[in-house]
Amino acid sequence: MTRNTALAATLALPLLLAACGTPQERCISGNTAEYRTVSRLLAEVEGNLARGYAWEERQVVRDRLTQCRSVWRDKDGRAVVGYEPCWRDYVDTERYRVPIDPAAEQRKRDNLAARKAQLSDRAAAVVQACREAFPEDQG
Fold first, then answer.
1. pLDDT grade for 136, boundaries at 50, 70 and 90
2. What is d(CA 16, CA 72) in angstroms, rounded to the nearest whole number?
């Protein structure tokens, strides 16, 4: 297997695994996405309130000294491959603290909690319907 083929196969693996799952799991996952999103956001807001600050991320471009491949011709015209030091850019992700407005964050938490409560009954009904529509063996 060539390097590019192996790389493509490695990158495609998560996509193939995401497509996997039983019909019941796909039904539940597809129909409870909003409930899971609201739950995740609520947990994040509650964490912000507990800490007193939020986390954000930014992309930072830095340069790094590394080895670069060079090809040149010798006096007989043959290609010679060598390595020499060179600077390359790379992107780094930094997390940093952001101050929050506790009153606004509490309002956000209250709204998300209310929305989660609304979605909870619907999510439970969807899960039950998916289990009935796509029963799985329990043995």
1. confident
2. 42
